[in-house]
Write a structure and sequence with these properties.
The complex is a heterotrimer of chains A (289), B (761) and C (162). Chain A is an alpha+beta fold and 289 residues long. Chain A folds into two domains: 111 residues, Uridine Diphospho-n-acetylenolpyruvylglucosamine Reductase, domain 3, CATH 3.30.465.10; 112 residues, 2-Layer Sandwich (Enolase-like, domain 1). Helix content of chain A is 34%, strand content 25%. Chain A contains eleven helices and 14 strands. In chain A, the strands form four sheets. A five-stranded antiparallel beta sheet of chain A has the order 4-5-10-6-7. A four-stranded antiparallel beta sheet of chain A has the order 11-12-13-14, with helices on both faces. Chain A is globular, with a radius of gyration of 19 Å. The mean pLDDT of chain A is 96. Among the domains of chain B are: 154 residues, Aldehyde oxidase/xanthine dehydrogenase, molybdopterin binding domain (Aldehyde Oxidoreductase, domain 4, 2-Layer Sandwich), CATH 3.30.365; 189 residues, Aldehyde oxidase/xanthine dehydrogenase, a/b hammerhead (Aldehyde Oxidoreductase, domain 3), CATH 3.90.1170.50; 176 residues, Aldehyde oxidase/xanthine dehydrogenase, molybdopterin binding domain (Aldehyde Oxidoreductase, domain 4). Chain B is 27% helix and 25% strand. Chain C has 162 residues and is of the alpha+beta class. Chain C has a five-stranded mixed beta sheet with strand order 2-1-5-3-4, sandwiched between helices. In chain C, helix 3 runs parallel beside helix 5. The radius of gyration of chain C is 16 Å and the shape is globular. Classes of the chains: A alpha+beta (289), B alpha+beta (761), C alpha+beta (162). Chain B: Keywords: Molybdenum, Oxidoreductase. Chain B: Pfam families: Ald_Xan_dh_C, MoCoBD_1, MoCoBD_2. Chain B: This is Xanthine dehydrogenase family protein molybdopterin-binding subunit.
Chain lengths: 289, 761, 162
């Protein structure tokens, strides 16, 4: 049995060096996916590189463009940042649907993203919000849109030695609102059968000027449905617009039958949840417009 | 001494302890983390075991090569099915239901064939868990894969792979010529079902299905075994019955039972699933080979893949009533998943189907069907919830057709004392009608419903049991009392035993301490299962305490120099009624303090096989709210009503009712074994085997109806099994109330409810 | 495999241990330190029986590597009572018969205490959602939720000057 080394570097550079040295090495954020996969034998990394001792890797901070969320920031810590909650309540809520309180005290959005499950709760909300990852690697830092990170179930576009160091969210746009809803059989402790993240902007008249809608668990990766957003732009989110949006969502859904849900149910729920999420996002946009 | 089998009859009186709610004696250990459960126990020099399991649902074992594993540094022993003795078929009635010891042995370690994914094939013991796991990776097992079958109807179809070539359907005369997967068939009933259905004013003919579900105890199976060269052994394990562990393990290993001492550790839930053995003989063999104690412990995944679920079922019901709502005929035919070996649920299923109604013409047929799933095991009211779901759903459908209130239809036809059961034997003093009346009177039944809400009701029962228990009540030198039983305490039975002994002796509850003794320290006791412990072990406790009371009286009389009939036990002490010492009293402390000079230590053993148990009946009312757009079902209100005989410790009676209801709700809504097309279990973990979490449930209100059992000194009836029986149909009936659609297939997950709401797709 | 040396604080005591790089904190608590009050019900973070408080936040100790605990503080069920004096949550679990088999109980008590430490007046719904990561198969949660609400009431009374 190959042994696994454990490292807890202090700097991004050291972490990159450790990850580059062994292509099977894995970064450790909250560990709520990684440790489960190691225990079940699905994964035997040559090294585990704990990111939590690196300065700046935990916590939320503001910069000129918006919010910077360290890769090792646990989901529950997002709720403690009042400005983030006010700006992106949908993202914070999505991250705080993952697992249980115990899990969310460890689990991170970066880990949720890099686990590359199509059902990851925080990802549709991040994609809808237009979030960007800062990826650290052997050639320095690069920025990648969140939706470009997962490429297939369990697979990311990150190269050897790279890891997500930060997730950046823009400042809240004037008249903006976001929301995330998911369908699960249980109220908690469950994996999304379908998830829908919405971010939109309303002008002073209540007309939608932009909208991004992303879906989870209806394809091999989280999908950004541009047609669904487009169906809302220029409307006042009337019934016809919502119906067109739901139709676009369903058309973009290409789910599978599995232990968590059927194709027909997932397609139907994608439409229902997206519509409900749009209405919540709109009420948030309106309330703060 | 052996107590007489007929006990003193129930005597209603003002109880001092029975019906109070004291803190359980083992409580502090359990809230501080000190209590030792199976996975917590360590023996000096202990090795760590691990088990290699079959990746195939059905395969012949061609060869097993363990050489590389044995050569790994730190590996001390390797065992396969060849290390277990060859046994003659013998059906043993231990645990809950009967098991052929050959099947038990082959389930512990497969011999020639593996019968389900997860079937144990090779075991190793090593100096660390990591080495033991590494060793498993070095073992090569060559399999010849065989066709497999998972469904009960498929397993009975012509050409289906037959699991065992020596199983000829039991219960069929003459014995079938060919072996088949129909392991057992049970039939009961009488009268003219066809004629009565033909003339009925309304009939319901429907099929209902359920998937296998797991007992879901949070403590995985684990044990430590130490088997010495002289043949003597110790096993430390949690179980629902350490005597069952002893007898099954000794039988599998063909050794004398008295050579094994089983020490019961605290048990982290069982619900019927810990009435058998999986690990103990394997740990024993590894220990014998290595000369060291060996721990075997399952992971959660192993628990799901390799330990008994409750059977799933396909159930056909035909039931009819006349225009006034009198049930005239019922026919129930069901197939239960038996899994890899012959299980025991069909008989209980037949007895639990329609016996709660007075119906002149009945036919109930149950068949156990072998298939390539883990061997089905007892789960709370084994055999009853499945068939009850079908019957109590059909009764609701019939009420709808007749336009009669579903509670009134049940009450009109409810069986009472003296009415015949399905077997023809008369019911004893049952409280079914009282439960229905309590439901009708309960505010829940008439409370208004909100939008998208519906209300369902269902009733059910289970036979309960009595049987063998041994209890030793002893008096310490200071007069305090120890009650030692052979019954594992799963949910507060130490407290109930202490209450009953304190009641008999009329002493403070805290003066009585109750413990669970090992197999060498107390006589044989049947498992804690079948809702028998408070009844049967309680009866033995009362008997032994009565005997201790008699001894104390005799000793006092001797010390006073009076005859036995000149003294009496009053308020926890012996009082002299006549002579010079008239009016004097002597406490247990005073008597026991001088016991060494007045006849020796004071103790009494009651070893009895308790008779006179009565079945339990329950009625559950459930309100659901269904999201019409998503099919999500929320349980918004729930009331469980049950005839409990007499509640010895009402908190733990309510706890049984609430816990059983929650399990039943889980079974109704979300729980199911989900298999892939490859015959492998797809949801072997708590994430995708969705048991209810706290936020899924409301408070579960309880109503304890007390219709005392005349055969028990304190009126006890078993309470643990019944509460899982009614919830399945209660929830289904409530969903029907909310959406006007009938779901006949469990679990009623959101996509199924959605499909019922949107048949167009 | 070379073992890792870890210095940490468990229930207020400075502690050192050697662990495998892949060992969980739960493995070390149970097998190395003999603190078997934290239970392993699943090993995958789905049952909460192994709940401990790590640097002030409750976590599943089966999902923490033992090596991660270097320099941190860990609080387990064994440290909830003060000597022989039970914490109100423990006392209320006993009084309300909020346990049957007791296997999930340590995890529930650690989680419930963590809730009441930050929210002295939770609603029933808040209690249910906070405890949703702790599975109990015996009780149906009813008496657990009542015990936690009652413990909260008692703690509020204790904290209010007379």
């Amino acid at each position: 049995m190959p042994s696994t080394a454990f490292h807890a570097p202090d700097t991004v550079e050291d972490a990159v060096a450790l990850l580059s040295a062994d292509p099977t090495a894995r970064p450790l954020g909250g560990g709520t996916d990684l440790i489960v996969q190691m225990r079940s034998g699905r994964l035997s990394p040559g090294a585990v590189v704990d990111l939590k001792r690196i300065e700046g890797m935990s916590g939320v901070r503001r910069d000129d463009e918006g919010f910077v969320i360290g890769a090792a920031t646990p989901c529950t810590a997002l709720k403690a940042d009042a400005a983030l909650v006010a700006a992106w309540p949908g993202v914070v809520e999505a991250a705080n649907l993952i697992g249980s309180v115990q899990v969310r005290n460890r689990a991170t959005m970066a880990g949720n993203l890099c686990n590359a499950s199509p059902a990851a709760d925080s990802v549709p909300a991040l994609v809808a919000a237009g979030a960007v990852c800062v990826v650290a690697g052997p050639s320095g830092l690069r920025e990648v849109p969140v939706e470009a990170v997962p490429v297939a179930p369990g697979k990311t576009s990150l190269a050897s030695g790279e890891f997500v160091a930060e997730i950046r969210l823009p400042a809240k746009p004037a008249g903006g609102g976001d929301a995330y809803l998911r369908s699960t059989p249980r109220t908690e402790m469950d994996i999304a059968v379908v998830g829908a993240g919405v971010s939109l902007v309303l002008d002073g008249e209540g007309t939608c000027t932009s909208a991004r809608i992303a879906l989870g668990a209806v394809g091999p990766t989280v999908v950004l449905v541009e047609e669904a957003g487009a169906a809302l732009v220029g409307t006042k989110l009337d019934d016809d617009a919502l119906a067109a949006m739901s139709k676009a969502v369903q058309a973009a859904s290409n789910p599978i039958d599995d232990k968590r849900g059927t194709v027909s149910y997932r397609k139907a729920m994608a439409g229902v949840l997206a519509r409900r999420a749009v209405l919540i996002a709109a009420s948030r946009a309106g309330a703060k417009a | 001494m052996n107590a007489p089998e007929t006990m003193k009859q129930f005597r209603p009186k003002g109880f001092r302890h029975v019906g109070t709610r004291p803190v359980r004696p083992d409580g502090v250990d359990k809230v501080t983390g000190k209590a030792l459960y199976s996975p917590d126990f360590k023996a000096p020099g202990m090795l760590w075991g691990a088990i290699l399991r079959s990746p195939h649902p059905h395969a012949r074992i061609i060869s097993i090569d363990t050489k590389k594993a044995e050569a790994l540094v730190g590996v001390k022993a390797v065992a396969t099915g060849r290390d277990l003795p060859t046994l003659e078929s013998l059906v043993m009635h231990v645990g809950e239901g009967a098991s052929d010891i050959v099947d038990v042995s082959h389930n512990c370690l497969a011999l020639d064939k593996v019968l389900y994914e997860g079937h144990a094939v090779v075991a190793v013991a090593a100096t660390s868990p990591e080495i033991a796991r590494e060793a498993l990776g070095l073992i090569t097992v060559e399999y010849e894969e065989l066709p497999f079958v998972l469904g009960v109807e498929e397993a009975l179809a012509e050409g289906a792979p037959v699991l065992h070539d020596n199983v000829f359907t039991k219960g069929v005369e003459p014995k079938p010529e060919k072996p088949s997967n129909a392991a057992m068939r049970v039939e009961m009933g009488g009268g003219d079902v066809e004629g009565a259905l033909a003339s009925a004013a309304a009939t319901v003919t429907e099929r209902y299905t359920l998937e296998p579900v797991h007992q879901g105890y949070i403590e995985p199976h684990a044990c430590v075994a130490s088997w010495n060269g002289d043949g003597q052994a110790q096993i430390w394990t949690s179980s629902q019955g350490h005597f069952a562990v002893r007898s099954l393990t000794a039988s599998v290993l063909a050794m004398p039972q008295s050579d094994i001492r089983v020490t019961p550790l605290e048990i982290g839930g069982g619900f019927g699933g810990k009435t058998t053995i999986y690990l103990e003989p394997v740990a024993m063999v590894l220990s014998r080979k290595s000369g060291r104690p060996v721990r075997l412990a399952m992971t959660r995944e192993e628990v799901f893949r390799a330990t008994g679920p409750a059977p799933g079922a396909v159930i056909d019901v035909r039931i009819g009533a006349d225009a006034e709502g009198t049930l005239v005929a019922a026919e129930v035919e069901f197939l239960y998943h038996s899994g890899a070996y012959t299980a025991n649920d069909a008989g209980a299923g037949v007895s639990s189907a329609i016996g709660h109604y007075r119906i002149a013409n009945t036919r109930v047929v149950g068949t156990e069907v072998l298939c390539n799933r883990p061997a089905a095991k007892a789960y709370r009211a084994p055999g009853a919830p499945q068939v009850n779901f079908a019957v109590e759903s059909a009764i609701d459908e019939l009420a709808g057709k007749l336009g009669i209130d579903p509670l009134e239809l049940r009450l009109k036809n409810a069986a009472a004392e003296g009415d015949p059961q399905t077997s023809g034997l008369p019911w004893g003093r049952i409280g079914w009608v009282e439960c229905l009346e309590a439901a009708r009177a309960h505010p829940h039944w008439s409370a208004p419903l909100g939008p998208n809400q519906g209300r369902g009701i269902a009733g059910g029962y289970w036979g309960n049991y009595g049987g063998p228990s041994t209890v030793n009540v002893s008096v310490a030198e200071d007069g305090t009392i120890t009650v030692a039983t052979g019954s594992p305490d799963i949910g507060g039975s130490r407290a109930s035993m202490a209450i009953m002994a304190a009641e008999v002796l009329d002493v403070p509850y805290e003066q009585v301490r109750s413990v669970v003794a090992d197999t060498a320290s107390i006589g044989v006791s049947m498992v804690t299962g079948g809702s028998r412990t408070t009844f049967a072990t309680g009866m033995a406790t009362v008997q032994a305490a009565e005997d201790v009371k008699s001894i104390l009286c005799q000793r006092a009389a001797r010390m006073w120099g009076v005859s036995d009939d000149q003294v009496e036990w009053r308020s926890g002490a012996v009082v002299c009624l006549e002579g010079e010492k008239q009016g004097q009293s002597m406490t247990a402390a005073a008597i026991a303090g001088r016991s060494f000079h007045s006849g020796g230590p004071i103790a009494a053993v009651a070893a009895l096989s308790a008779k006179g148990w009565l079945p339990g009946f329950g009625v559950h009312i459930c309100d659901t709210e269904v999201d019409p757009e998503t099919g999500h079902v929320k349980i918004v209100r729930y009331t469980a009503i049950q005839d409990v005989g007499t509640a010895i410790h009402p908190d733990y009676v309510e706890g049984q009712m609430q816990g059983g209801a929650a399990q039943g709700i889980g079974w109704a809504l979300n729980e199911a074994y989900i298999y892939g097309k490859n015959g492998k279990l797809d949801n072997a973990g708590f994430l995708d085997y969705r048991m209810p979490v706290a936020s899924d449930l409301p408070m579960i209100d309880t109503v304890m109806v007390e219709v005392p059992n005349p055969a028990h000194p304190y009126g006890v009836k078993g309470v643990g099994e019944v509460p899982i029986v009614p919830p399945l149909a209660a929830v289904a009936n409530a969903i029907h109330g909310a959406i006007g659609q009938r779901l006949r297939d469990l679990p009623m997950v959101p996509d199924r409810v959605y499909a019922a709401l949107h048949p167009e797709g | 495999m070379s073992k890792i040396h870890v210095s940490t604080t468990v229930n207020g005591d400075a502690t050192e241990y050697l662990c495998e790089p892949t060992s969980s904190l739960l493995d070390v608590l149970r097998d190395t330190m003999g603190l078997t009050g934290s239970k392993e019900g699943c090993g995958s973070g789905d049952c909460g029986a192994c709940t401990v408080v790590l640097d002030g936040e409750m976590v599943c100790s089966c999902l923490v590597l033992a090596a991660e605990a270097e320099g941190r503080t860990v609080a387990t069920i064994e440290g909830v009572a003060e000597g022989s004096v039970l914490h109100p949550v423990q006392q209320k679990f006993l009084e309300h018969a909020a346990l049957q088999c007791g296997f999930c109980t340590p995890g529930f008590i650690v989680a419930a205490k963590a809730l009441l430490d930050r929210n002295p007046n939770p609603t029933e719904t808040e209690v249910r959602y906070w405890l949703a990561g702790n599975l109990c198969r015996c009780t149906g949660y009813d008496k657990i939720v009542r015990a936690v609400l009652d413990a909260a009431a008692e703690l509020r009374q204790e904290r209010t000057p007379a």
